[in-house]
Amino acid sequence: MDSITHIVTGACIGEAMLGRKIGRKAMLWGALAQSLPDIDFVAGMWMDLPSELLAHRGFTHSFLFASIMTVLLALTAERIHRPHDISLKRFLRFFLIEIGVHLFLDAFNNYGVGWLEPFSDHRISFHTVYVADPFFTIVPIIAFLRLLQKRGTFNVRRQWAMAGIIAPAVYLVYAVTNKLTIDLKVRSMAQKQGITHIRYFTTPAPLNSWLWFVVMEQRDGFQIGYRSVFDGKPSLNLRFFPRNDSLLKPIWDHEEVMQLKKFSQGYYTVEQHGDTLVFNDLRFGQMIGWKRPDAGFVFHYHLTHPEDNELVVQRGRFAGWDLQTPLDLMQRIRGLPLIAPSGQSR
Fold first, then answer.
1. Residue-wise burial string across 320-339, b where 16 or more C-beta atoms lie within 10 A, e elsewhere
2. Model's pTM, two decimal places?
3. H, E, C per residue of the chain
4. Which structural domain range is residue 229 located in?
5. Engineering a disulfide at 92: which of 74, 78, 131, 201 sits with its beta carbon 3.0 to 4.6 angstroms away?
6. Is there a domain that residue 28 lies in?
7. 156 with 229, same domain?
8. 208-263 confidence digits (pLDDT tens)
9. Has residue 120 been placed in a domain?
10. Domain check: are 42 and 77 in the same one?
């Protein structure tokens, strides 16, 4: 999830668990603990970009890191707040929950987290919530602001804190329900349409959990499209994108190429744009692909012009957006097509 979500959610949990004991300092501890796993961005300052991509959400998002930092933070807080009547066990439980919630929430995004590092580099991703979803974060933000303003009684403050915890939890369950519904429909429709695939995934389109990006892997490429939970038409409209592995042959064994293939978990295509060779990671979706089926991909890495790769993951998320784009997105979410189909499944 984005940093704001972790900060406000952590602060609400802090108020709910320790607010009665240490006042507003509980919100500060909660925001700090929830943000701690993202300290891995510091290491990225000394890494090349492909290495940084693999390192992000790696060890600092592992169960081992969570265990170590839980103990260190609990011992530090227990000492700082003396004299107090808070047991070390309670501090341990508090920090374990805070860091654990961060690791848990990040697993629902499409980036993937390394829960098992350093023992396994396998990344866990449930592809359920977009990295910045306002419907997930809005209530925790309101609760956080009210807690900063409102002194009130402990019961009133606790009510706001619990609202900031329960609302996103309910939305997460709702998002999981939407994903299960979409996955069931996509599998069924693919079977009826004879769309064979090796594997597939669905992940939310930007800023919502109603419109889903669909990727189906085939032997030499991918069928890609969108499906809304409100779509009435009982069929998939997908466009084929060739993998184009042959373009990588001259540099197949280069370290950066091997790292990018590993990072993408095999969901990638390669394109030649003039004199530039571009590596696309499909997991992050397209730039306004619900409107233009042939749109470029959010994550695109320039293999032959690496100097153009700054902020490679972020740069494409909202590229091409204008004032009309959110309206088009809402229309597509409602199940209304924006353009005539330009690609058919094969």
1. eeeeebeebbeebbeeeeee
2. 0.92
3. CCHHHHHHHHHHHHHHHHHHHHCCHHHHHHHHHHHHHHHHHCHHHHCCHHHHHHHCCCHHHCHHHHHHHHHHHHHHHHHHCCCCCCCHHHHHHHHHHHHHHHHHHHCCCCCCECCCCCCCCCCECCCCCCCCCHHHHHHHHHHHHHHHHCCCCHHHHHHHHHHHHHHHHHHHHHHHHHHHHHHHHHHHHHHHHCCCCCEEEEEECCCCCCEEEEEEEECCEEEEEEEECCCCCCCCCCEEEECCHHHHHHHCCCHHHHHHHHHHCCCEEEEEECCEEEEEEEEEEECCCCCCCCCCEEEEEECCCHHHCCCCCCCCCCCCCCCCHHHHHHHHHCCCCCCCCCCCCC
4. 194-333
5. 74
6. yes
7. no
8. 999 999 999 999 999 999 999 999 989 999 999 999 999 999 999 899 999 999 99
9. yes
10. yes
Q: Are residues 60 and 138 in the same domain?
A: yes
pLDDT band at 319 (very low <50, low <70, confident <90, very high): confident
Same domain, 200 and 163: no
Is 341 contained in some domain?
no
**Residue that is last in its domain, among 174, 209, 239:** 174
166 and 247 together in one domain: no
